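Title: Request for sanity check on Choline-sulfatase prediction

Description:
We are preparing a figure and want to confirm that the structure record we downloaded matches what your pipeline produces today. Could someone re-run it with the sequence below and paste the raw structure tokens into this thread? We only need the token string, no images.
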Amino acid sequence: MTFPRLLLFLVVMLGSKHLHADVYDVYLLAGQSNMDGRGDADELSETQRRCPADAMIFYRNPPHASDGWSPLATGFSVPPKFKGALPSTKFGPEIGFAATVARSTTANKLGLIKGAKGGTSLRVDWNPGRAGEPDSQGPCYRDFIETIELATSELTYKGHSYVIRGLLWHQGESDSRSSEQRYRMRLTELINRIRQDVGSPDLPVVIGEVFDNGRRDTVRAAQRGVGSSMANVEVAPARGLTTWDEGTHLDAQSQWQLGQRFATALSKRSNSKRLKPANGPHEKPNVLFISVDDLNDWEGSLGGNHQAQTPHMDKLFHESVLFTNAHCSQAVCTASRNSLLSGIHPSRSGWYASTAAMRKSYDEVMGDHKMLPQYFRDHGYETLACGKVFHQGVSDYKDRTKDFWDETAPTYKIPKELLARGDGYGGKMFYPFPKRGSQIVDRYGEEYADGHSLCYGALDRDDIPGGMMFDELTADWASEQLRRDHTKPFFLAVGFVRPHVPYTAPREFFDLYNLDDIQLPDVPDDEMADIPMMGKSIAYGTLPAGDHYAVVNLSDSYWREMIFGYLACVSFADAQVGKVLDALANSQHAENTIVVLWSDHGQHLGEKKHWRKQSLWEESTRVPLCIRLPGQATGSSCSEAVSLLDVYPTLIDLCGLPATAELDGASLLPQIQDPKTPRDTPVLSTWYYRNHSVRSNDWRYIRYRDGTEELYDHRSDPGEHTNLAGLSEFADVVAEHRRWLPKIDALPAGDDRWEGDKLDRRVREWTENESVPAWLK
């Protein structure tokens, strides 16, 4: 932490909180000397110098550290060779801007965050570099983003809320030798990156046109070009302004007028999210609802595996609000999908697994409440579905399918004789298996029949019935729906199966990777030493000797081969997602469709010596989740812990539908508007009956039904290798997370009592016989 940042942190933390909370409309001011301000305050009238009572400024011009938020006044500028403490005798456009904005009808307070410095260039000093890599960024850009973080953190700490309403930019004199094309490219990149870094992809921007001294025509043309070509960007003209030196620095009256022009230009733009189409037969936005089965964080944008090649999803993530700390309610297909689509947590519904008893309880659980697609259908949407949306496909409830969907994809038929080439697992969606069957069963025999799923293989087209995999047919059907005319807004659900086991895909996706280069996850030999018995029982899996034992003992390379297969399936799924997104981009619906992409849960590839989902650790619960609004081209990321339960209420808000009281999640609209908006509630994940995980921003707490616990600090231990639950210094953290456990756990739907399951029986056997497998110790 730099010294100025440390100093401000101490000031904030040692200061007292406000007695009441305020809402701030925040504006960002950046650039070089005319933004910093070279006007002489003594040349303003008394009325012009008088600032709105509720206006505050957070000013920082390194090496001048900030004292935090201060009442707005003249003097927040650093002229050349200035050695004293602020205030100086100078001011910038913030004074005229604040006076003009204050005349609006808003009841919010005004906050200005200013980080400008004279003599700085866009080429070097304001170079935005690479996202998340401060060392690649110019010093002014790096300092400005840090200033925004400091300022907004102070507001949040003091209990206030805020909305960043716009960016005011005045710079270009130092880049007068740049070509028009080069300056325009750099300015466009800067605006996009600031929008990304503050989490507001359509942030209104006003560019202050540089003064015309006869030698800045290319910069001025570039500024006007950016203003006419970029969405939500205006230009404040320099026409009629005057300078006190030789054509560079605006005099006092021109500085004040420039502030007025910034406010006037900004009033033409809005920070609200546009969800209505520019043209079309209906007002409400469409929804493209994409799910990818068993997809963990192995995408470039989420960083789970740097070898993964996922260009189409990464592009979507970069255009969306990407929730980088999203988690499922339960890490198994049926329970996760039922919770998202119903909006009800498994601990309340009792929907923990795929059983006939669960399906019989539909009316008992739902009552008059509606599943997400039915809710949209009942409120005027055309609903369409293809692929794996529910666990069994477009519906787990055959008598409800027509309530959910107006139209579904045709059934995918596979001849029985071809299914027999597999091994009895899966059916139409998961087929085909490797041509020679499961490597686990081939090595260990039919006693290991559950190992049919732990297999991989590259497929030639002749190995695939009809030459097309289920996901390819799904992508084609969805693409066709996007090319159609629709007289009503549509809700199109598209469910892809891969990378669900078996890890088979067309050979070209295996060719993207080199098996010898595949890297294994970091799994310490003593990984399970501090894990309670119930956690060990979950990790054990279903195979007679344990899943991990079977994989690592099949051959020296089989662990790597399984990852090889999973990566190929991830890239295959990515290609299908890309096909659908391309169809949308080339359709008449491109500018009026919300895109949501999610996975039902993650997937372990040997982490925690586990090979399924079906656990309470990070690899199981963490999921990709992104939401792209209509017309959005530049994205942002939100690191707050969020739940898949939040998707239902979020879509209701985004589409302007009436609220429903049954939902357990909370709308993500505040985070979509400002990704730094904090969340008050951590994510509750469940593994079957009375085993729970609470995931907050920095911690994961696990409590099993026998009372044993785990605790991990994600700031220092993202791999969850060190269980801190038994250490006294973390007792308060454990207590804080315990309070989020459910007060009542519903019995598994359809059961009248609970007598334990195989997890409990395995724990009892290990305990009584002192026989925990050596690889789990």
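Thanks, this matches our download. The longest strand covers residues 161-170.
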